[in-house]
Amino acid sequence: MPVGKIGKIFLKIRPAQKARVVKNPATGEEITIKAKPETYIPRISFSKRLKEKTVDAKITVE
Fold this sequence. Notes:
By secondary structure, the chain is mainly β. The chain has 1 helix and 5 strands; from the N terminus they run E-E-E-E-E-H. The chain has one helix spanning about 50-55; strands at about 1-5, 5-15, 20-25, 30-35, 40-45. The chain has a 3-stranded antiparallel β-sheet with strand order 1-2-5. A two-stranded antiparallel sheet has the order 3-4. The model has no long low-confidence stretch (mean pLDDT about 90).
């Protein structure tokens, strides 16, 4: 989906994660982390014009 002259926004699929057992480093206790389903993550790709303008921009720090 185009967003003016800024770039494009799109959704990327993050794959599902399996349940796993990990160790708490502080106590040594084993903890089970639940499985997570696949999710959609919003991403943005910036336009060539915006990238060129940011390279030319001067940043001043006071």
